Amino acid sequence: MASRDPVADLRRIAFHLERANEATYRVRAFRSAAAAVSTLDEQELTARAAAGTLAELSGIGDVTARCITESLAGDEPVYLRRLLSTAGSDLQGAAATLRDALRGDCHSHSDWSDGGSPIEEMALAAVELGHEYLVLTDHSPTLKVANGLTPARLRRQLDHVARLNDALPDGFRVLTGIEVDILDDGSLDQEDALLARLDVVVGSVHSKLRDESPRMTRRMLNAIANPHLDVLGHMTGRKVLAKGDGDKGHRGGRTRPPSTFDLDKVIAACIEHDKAIEINSRPDRLDPPKRMLTVAVEAGCKFTIDTDAHAPGQLDWLDNGCKRAALCAVPVEDVVNTWPLDKLLAWTSTHSAN
Length: 354
Description:
It is a single chain. By secondary structure, this protein is of the alpha/beta class. It has 2 domains: 6-85, Orthogonal Bundle (DNA polymerase, domain 1); 93-353, Metal-dependent hydrolases (TIM Barrel, Alpha-Beta Barrel), CATH 3.20.20.140. 44% of the residues lie in helices and 9% in strands. It has 14 helices and 7 strands. The chain has a 7-stranded parallel sheet. Helix 11 (263-272) links the parallel strand 5 (231-232) and strand 6 (276-280). The longest helix has 17 residues, at 151-167. The radius of gyration is 21 Å and the shape is elongated.
C-alpha cells in the first residue's frame, strides 16, 4: 500500500483538535511533530519509522511517532480516525443554507496577538475551508494580556499582509482588520488614521464588563457611532461552559454572565449607523444569547457570523453560529459576510466616509 503524507495527517489531527476546542498542549504536540517531520528526508524518516526511533527526535513523542508510522504504512492514523468519527453531524435546513452562503470570516486572530498560529497558517486553513477571504483582527494595544498591537506593530502587520496576499492562491485574500477595544468612554483603542486604513474594524468590550447598565449603554453607543467601527463584537461579553476551552487566549472553562445594557438603544444605534452585530461562534461565547439575537433580527439589524478563531481548526466553528442564526430566523441577506467581497468593502467604506 502506498504511504500517506505524515505531515498532512499530523496537521489534520491538529486541525480537528482545535476544532474540538481541545487543550493547547495536545494541538502543539501534533503541530510540533509535523514541523519536525517536514525537516527530514524521506529515506531517514522511513528508516527511523522502521527502527522505532522516531520518538528520539525533538518534537516527536510516542503518540505522534505512532501516527507517523501508520501514515507511512498507508493507513489513516487511528488517532485521526477517532477524531473524525466524533466530529459531529452535518448542518441541515436553514443552518446549512447560511453556511453555504458564507464567503469568509470577519473575526480571527494570529500569533501577532493571542492566537496560536502564524497568519500564513490561518490563511491556508481558510482557503481549505472554501473561504474567499479571512479578516485578520488581532487585538489592540490596551489588551496587554493578549499582546495587543501597538500602532507600530499594526503598521508592520499591514505590510506583512500585503506581501502575503501576493503569494496566496488566486481568489483568496486576507483582509486587514482589528478587534479594537471599546474603552471606558466608548472610544476605540487605536489611532484613527490606522483604523481608517483597515478593511474591517470589529469593536469589543473586554474590560469593566460588570459596569452598571447606564454606563455600559453609553459606552457601547459611543463606539457604535464611531465612523471607524463596522462590527460590534461579542456584544454581551458572556462566557459559557464549553468542552476543552483550549487556546491560550481563552483558558480555564470559566463562565461569565452577560453585561447589562439597554438592548433596544444599542440595536437602534446599530440600525441608525448601519453597523453589524456579530454572531460569535466560539463554543465558550455563543454571543449574543438567542433572546437578544431574536430582538435584533425583528428590528432589522445586519449581522456577521464569525468564529473569533485563535487557531486554524477553530475557523471551522462557523457551524455553531449558523445553527444559532437559523434558530432565530436570521435572513441570509442580512449577514454581511454572505455578500460578495466588493459589496462588503463598499459597506465598510461608507462608515469611515461619514
